[in-house]
Amino acid sequence: KVAGMGESTVANEINDIVESLSNPTIAFLCSPGEVTVRITAKASNTDEAYQMIDDVAQKVKAKLGDNVFGEDKQIIEQVVGKMLIDSHKTVALAESCTGGLVSDRITDISGSSDYFLGGVIAYSNQLKIDLLAVSKDDIDRYGAVSAAVAEQMASGVRKLANSDYGIGITGIAGPTGATSEKPVGLVYIGLSSKDRVFSKEFRFVGDRTGIKRWASQSALDMLRRELLKESRNG
User: Global pTM?
Assistant: First the structure.
């Protein structure tokens, strides 16, 4: 299972593997923010088939690297939860356009109370200002959908919850609310830790439900990659 790459990019990255195969074969299954690389083998028995699949899977994972987040029935919120537990870290969420979807996905995992401290759905600008200490001047200058606001939302909720990580999400899920400068699908996700705060800009395509799903997947993937980076840096 792959996050942070589209189907065409994944296909291009492993094209040499795909073209070299006749059995097993590779197919791609897509959902918002996620590509599943499905490997199918035919053999005289199950053990032999699984061994053939595993050999190809290792090659695929070597090619795709950190973009691979799991296998089989694993979902990204489950993977991120285990990483938080293993690193003894906690997270809190400040969501606007996703309306609590990331918090909902995290709390779908049993035991998430060990690492998820809480979430705020800060839909209005005033709540962003009053609860999360987002600068009114920055909202006026850059707009509520901006990198500056996403980062301040992330830092604000981290301080509010006293968590190790804070995530802030602001965007335009559509179909209304867009401008020529800020189209439907524009989303900023901020991530705050004690050492740094940063954000990423995304431009998702789809309907309102799809954009919210893309944003939630991307937020979880940003946290996953940050946890990977910190674990490697010790």
Answer: 0.96
